[in-house]
Amino acid sequence: xxxxxxxxxxxxxxxxxxxxxxxxxxxxxxxxxxxxxxxxxxxxxxxxxxxxxxxxxxxxxxxxxxxxxxxxxxxxxxxxxxxxxxxxxxxxxxxxxxxxxxxxxxxxxxxxxxxxxxxxxxxxxxxxxxxxxxxxxxxxxxxxxxxxxxxxxxxxxxxxxxxxxxxxxxxxxxxxxxxxxxxxxxxxxxxxxxxxxxxxxxxxxxxxxxxxxxxxxxxxxxxxxxxxxxxxxxxxxxxxxxxxxxxxxxxxxxxxxxxxxxxxxxxxxxxxxxxxxxxxxxxxxxxxxxxxxxxxxxxxxxxxxxxxxxxxxxxxxxxxxxxxxxxxxxxxxxxxxxxxxxxxxxxxxxxxxxxxxxxxxxxxxxxxxxxxxxxxxxxxxxxxxxxxxxxxxxxxxxxxxxxxxxxxxxxxxxxxxxxxxxxxxxxxxxxxxx
Length: 434
Description:
By secondary structure, this protein is mainly α. It has helices at residues 2-48, 57-67, 73-96, 98-104, 117-138, 140-160, 166-184, 206-235, 245-263, 322-327, 346-379, 383-395, 397-407, 411-418, 420-428; strands at residues 192-194, 199-201. A hairpin with a 4-residue loop joins strand 1 (192-194) and strand 2. Helix 2 packs across helix 3 (73-96), helix 3 (73-96) runs antiparallel to helix 5 and helix 11 (346-379) packs antiparallel against helix 13. The longest helix has 47 residues, at 2-48.
């Protein structure tokens, strides 16, 4: 009987042990599946360089600020388009460099076998299609700019990367991103009067509206492009190392870009609208400083703005007060010369001075963020320090974008962009932006 009990007890123990083993096996399988999924996510995050994404939205927001418009729904679509195209370029870059990375950077996702090359190429194609679709939803001007951006990105990754034109192609891509932000912020359905004909056009208005927006964004686009040119030139030698002359040249470029960003004057935001929503056909735009009716009074707007005939009889500006101009999201095509504005504009002048000072301070942050790693790389141009300088240069675009936005009269945009910098720095410790 004792033997039976013993056997019975032993059988119970054996059944418990078997159940524990099955549970342990299931837990191990679940852990392995979770680790595999986590590994795939980590591999794709490394391939797409997620930490560098924080440098993209600021391009478009700086472009919108430079053009004088507030970002809207179509700006969000344009930002989504740029993010997709940026990630498409990252995936295509690793696919094109898979043979080189197998020798110089075997730990990258494709040469290490964590991501199939076909999957990387498919991701690049899919993200490109998504980016163009979002651009198309944002409007024809945005689609035109996004198409040019796509062509530049694919040409760089497939043909130009290892040629002398490579860094210039990357600079062009960054500049196009800024222009895309400018044209996408033009309000849909904005009216543009053709002076002398009385005709009005409704729609995207690439010529009269988006064209002017792109032109106003060109200085900001040039500065961000110059910074990208310097960083890309350094990145071409981050795997092998270089001489001290390369990071020193990039350091000089950063100083020039920072000085130009700090030296740009914030534009006067209160101005009279050079378009009209009511009036007589055949009216002509006034020449700066020569109002057709009345004279300026101390503390008052020009005579005739509250009655008929400011420019000519029956023509009245669509928005005279600066508050109306800003709330409409429209930046006028012309402003009164300095010195003849009414006394009521003095608070706005103070705001401009504040934007100028804040923009200069933010530009100093940009120089500090980009210059210090480049200085260390100049002292010791090893691959490790060059790679750190490139990563810091990518993140330094955020304060540069904030400086350009603030100096353009959008301090809120600049502050929001600066808030992205700590998150970009933390994520870059887990996922390298290079």
